[in-house]
């Protein structure tokens, strides 16, 4: 297979409901869609789901656009390859920029699966025909507003709710939700907002009493010792997200017992190949995994569904329906969750078609290069 054309589309879509984490609030998203086309005219799609601002990661939409155009496109354009791992090796010398790499990785896997007449899930080695989905809820202006959001998503059939927390918005919101939903699969995500202090440890001790499925990324990304100390003090499993970017990070997590659940984000880890390797390593260590999300458009969401079909994704993943985030997605049909379950597509590639007219209508900048 030879890549003859690469097109980039930076697309802006409004969110149905604004979303606030410990660092910022957002009401729309700008992601970059990657389209690779081979010499036979067959296309594959990926999504660079980097945030616009450097709060979750140092990457932004602007840095991704630069790295994609200056380094990734020249690496793949004209490249001849047989499997996605071979194509991914063309950018192995680039340090960091995992989100950018992930967009090209997904496009490579999509076109490869299509060329083989396989679904992306099957090409990755997935075994499930459906994936249980959870939803992530941001920090709301009031407890009543939070409860309204919880009720809406529970009513839509989602079996797991993740609550964003931050200093000052933690124990009480969780208690209120738990009191209203005593049997709900509930977990919290701090996005590394807490210092390694006795005051923070007391917050997590109180949260430990709320029968949570996990406490996700309480401390700073690189602070594995702090997470290990916390895990020794509480019964609730600590889940790491931002801490695990490379397989070496996962090995550190395992060695130190710094977490007992892993959030695998395809974007954070640099693509589907890296995500699959993390899945395998966690499986061998007895660590359950789930797929986290970055409010992806349908292209990235479809890739998340596919990777979530692997056997060790045993916890609900952030692959909720498109309508949770966007009035109109960039794929047709949109991703649909019925009673909290998303069917894994069995059609070629990601299993959806990109609405190219809608993409172009919402693109704020585009680039196209051919050999």
UniProtKB/TrEMBL annotation:
<keyword id="KW-0456">Lyase</keyword>
<dbReference type="InterPro" id="IPR036849">
    <property type="entry name" value="Enolase-like_C_sf"/>
</dbReference>
<dbReference type="InterPro" id="IPR010197">
    <property type="entry name" value="OSBS/NAAAR"/>
</dbReference>
<protein>
    <recommendedName>
        <fullName>o-succinylbenzoate synthase</fullName>
        <ecNumber>4.2.1.113</ecNumber>
    </recommendedName>
</protein>
<dbReference type="InterPro" id="IPR029065">
    <property type="entry name" value="Enolase_C-like"/>
</dbReference>
<dbReference type="Pfam" id="PF02746">
    <property type="entry name" value="MR_MLE_N"/>
</dbReference>
<dbReference type="Pfam" id="PF13378">
    <property type="entry name" value="MR_MLE_C"/>
</dbReference>
<dbReference type="InterPro" id="IPR029017">
    <property type="entry name" value="Enolase-like_N"/>
</dbReference>
<dbReference type="InterPro" id="IPR013342">
    <property type="entry name" value="Mandelate_racemase_C"/>
</dbReference>
<dbReference type="InterPro" id="IPR013341">
    <property type="entry name" value="Mandelate_racemase_N_dom"/>
</dbReference>
<keyword id="KW-0460">Magnesium</keyword>
<keyword id="KW-0479">Metal-binding</keyword>
<dbReference type="GO" id="GO:0043748">
    <property type="term" value="F:O-succinylbenzoate synthase activity"/>
</dbReference>
<feature type="domain" description="Mandelate racemase/muconate lactonizing enzyme C-terminal">
    <location>
        <begin position="143"/>
        <end position="237"/>
    </location>
</feature>
